[in-house]
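pasting for the record
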Amino acid sequence: MLDRVQLPCVIRHDTPPPRTDPVQRRADPSPYRAANQSPSQSHKPARSGLFPPNPLPRRHRQFWRGFRAATASCYRGVADGHQAPLGSARPSSTAKGSVMPMIRRFRAALLSLSALLLGVSAIPAAHADDIGGQTLAGVSGTGIHNTYNDKSAYTYLANALDTGTSLVELDTWANVFTRKWNVSHSNPLGSDNNCVKAGTAADLYTGDRNQNLDSCLDDIRIWLQAHPTSHPIMIKIEMKNGFNNTLGMNPTSFDGYVKTHLGSVLYAPADLLTRSDGTRYPDLDTAARADNWADYGSLAGRAIVEIIPGTFEQAVDPASSWSDVVYAQHLKDLAAAGSISQAAIFPSVLGAQAVDPRTRYSDTTLRPWFVVFDADAAAWVGDGNTEWYNANHYLTVVTDAYDVPPALSSSAPSLADAQARVAELAADGASYISSDWITAPANGVLGEVLARG
C-alpha cells in the first residue's frame, strides 16, 4: 500500500475514480427553512464548454479540475484517463425479476400522468399516514449532492438542512500534515465548505465558514437538536483519500470523532443490532433482514452516518484497502471483541446492482457487515430487479436522479418532473434519492418523504 504522505504526488493516470456522488431533491416550502435565508440566493450558473470525445462524467471533470488547481505542482494530466470499472463488472439484467418492480414503476407513471391531467404542478408529498408504522427501511427521502459545496444556494450548511432534506453529503480528506479531517471537494490540504463553528442554534447562520469535519457534524447536531421533529438525516461521507492508520486517522479514532460531535442524535450500528429485549443479532445483515431498524417516527431529530470509498483512494489504492473494506473489517473485529457499541458508522457498497454486489468482497466474512448500498440512479432503474434490496430491508442511496431515461435537466427540471422522478425511484425501492436540484422550482421536492416500494 502506498505511503499516504506521498499520495498527493502519486496518481495513476489510467484509472480516474469512478463516480460515487449522490444526487437529491426537495419538497414544498419547508417548515425548517430559516427566516434569514435570502430568497435571492441563486445557484451557480450551469457549466459550459467543449469536452473531448468520450469525456469523463461531469462530476469527475469538476473533481479533477479543482484538484489540479489546488495542487498544480503535482497533478497534471490526471483527467485524461477513462473511468475504471468499480469492483466486479455489473452483470446485464436479462430477466427483470419479479412482477413487483413493474407494478411499482406503473404506479409511479400513473402518479406522473395524473399530475399532468389534473393540471397540478406537483405530486403531493406523502402524509404521516402514508409512512405510519414504517421502519427506516420502509421510507424514501430526498437529498442534496455535495451539500457542503453549494455556497451560492446554501450560504450555511444549516440553510440546506432547512429545506427538509433527508440526506446531506460531506467529502472529507485525511490531511497528512495537520492530521485533521478537512471538508472540501478537491483540496486535500484545506477546507472549503459552508460549515461554521457553531455552539448554539443562533450560531448556525453566522461566522466564518470553511471549517473542518468536526464543525460540520456539530452544525448538524445543533440543527437537529433545535428541530427535534425533523426527518432523520442520513449523513453521507465520501472518504476522499480513505483512512490513514499510520497517522492514527483510522476507524477507531474516526468512531470517537463522529460520536463526540454528533452525540445523542447518532443512530449507530449497535442500534440496528439490538433487539427489543436487549439481545443482539450476530451481524448487520441478519438484523436488517429482520427489519430491526428503528421506527421512522422514533428517529425524528436523529442522524445516521454512511461512508463510501473516495475518488482519490479509488484512483491510487488497491480495492482491498479502500475505506469500505477497512471499516467492515473494523465492525467485524468489534463484534468479535464484544465492543460493537463503539462503532459509529455504516460502510456502504458502491455500485448497487440487480444481484448482490457484496460478492465482490473476496473475504466472505465481511459481507454481512454491509447493509447500505450506493448506486447510480440510471443504473438502478436499468437493472430492473431492485426488489432484493427492499425485500431484505437494506438502505439504498441513488445518485444523479436526473439521468434516468428520459433524462431531466441536471439543475432545473420542472417541479412536476422532479417529483415524478422521485416517486419513480421510491417505487423502485430507493431509500435516499440524491440530486443537484437546489434552485426553484425543482428544489420544492427536497422535503418529500414517501413510502418505499
